[in-house]
């Protein structure tokens, strides 16, 4: 992750709002780190932070200014994006003749 503030490009908010949005983002990221969320894995961290920031900005555009609520809404959003792996099937996936497409074996 770079050193550029995630909301640096946003021009539609006043400086105080940008600051509290940054605090909400840091709060949400810290909570994910502390709970050991897979969303903080190196290969998805940038996307996770972008999704958090996007949700915080969307909530702020609607008038939300409470840091805890901004954080909670962003966390709920990204946690909804996680797809848990399904259990491996216990039986054969399919008959090998089906894989060839003709069913005749």
List the helices and strands and how they pair.
Layout: H1 15-34, H2 45-61, H3 67-79, H4 96-99
Short note summarizing the structure:
The protein is mainly alpha-helical.
Description:
With 105 residues, this protein is mostly helical. The protein has a domain at 15-83. The chain contains 4 helices and no strands. α1 (15-34) crosses α2, α1 (15-34) crosses α3 and α2 (45-61) packs across α3. It is elongated and about 35 Å long.
**DSSP summary, beta strand count:** 0
Give Rg in angstroms. 21 Å
Query: Approximately how much helix is present in the residues?
Result: 40-55%
Residue share in β-strands: under 5%
- The computed structural class is mainly alpha
Distance between the termini: 53 Å
Indicate the overall shape. Answer: elongated
Could you give a short account of the major beta sheet? none
Mean pLDDT: 80
- What count of helical segments does DSSP give? 4
Poorly predicted regions: 94-100
